[in-house]
Amino acid sequence: MKKAIFLQVLTFCLVAAGAQAQSLTPQVVASGGGYAQGGGYSLSYTIGEPVTATLTSGSNILTQGFHQPDFQNIVKLLAKVYLEGAFNGANMNTTLSTLPAFPLTQPYNTAPWNYNGAEGVATLPANVVDWLYVELRDATFAPVAGGKRAVFLLSDGTLRDVDGTPGASFLGAVPGNYYVIVRHRNHLAVMSASQVGLPNASVYDFTTAAAQAFGVNQQKALTGGVFGLYAADFDANGVITVADFNFYANTGSQTNVYNDADANLDKQITVSDFNLYQPNASVIGIQQVRY
Known about the structure:
Blueprint: H1 2-19, E1 33-38, E2 41-46, E3 53-57, E4 60-64, E5 70-77, E6 79-80, E7 128-137, E8 143-154, E9 159-160, E10 168-171, E11 176-184, E12 187-191, E13 196-198, E14 204-205, E15 220-221, E16 227-228, H2 242-251, E17 254-255, E18 268-269, H3 271-280
């Protein structure tokens, strides 16, 4: 009977994991053991009962009884990016993060992103502009296992993981060379111009040149000779069209809100957001960032 139940649980877990592999969060449910990460690695373990069987499918592991330690790399990405809407000439405004309604969990779990990661914090770190969604792609631009992460964007353009460390920590990915896609709720997504060797000790800096992003005219020149993501892709589908204007127009004027129609991230939906949309209308993102 125990074996039959075990196999049923295994089948459910592997089917669920195959359908939503990125939604899995390492956990331990046992009388003894735990999960921890640090120094570029993660470790999960349990104690108190011998292992009777361990089955795997891809990157998924299911153990009957308590399991042996599972020691994994944490691939770290250090990057810097500016958002046109929040940029003030020197850095980015953090006005939005003062909202009581600012989400403490990642907001990319809806269309078009449909990312089911469990990233969240109890309190915001200092100097937060907004959440970003970061993806890793292989040499053929295909998504990679463990290559998705939601992180905070700080006012200086750097990334901060929810574990408090600089950059984005990809659990389950392996060290290697990847294209990096950076997405924001209402700015045009970009992809790195070349593959980035991860983990990287030197920050991949999108802000130094338009050519740091893959493709032609994928970043906008900002004050001070730096570059940033085009504002006003309100529906986040990778192109700025009349559909984005309709999104803005249908939202209507609002104050003190966390809303995708707020292109300049000032908590308000006003004509200032339309003024960011108008010069960017018809800008098209590369195929790899479109939905």
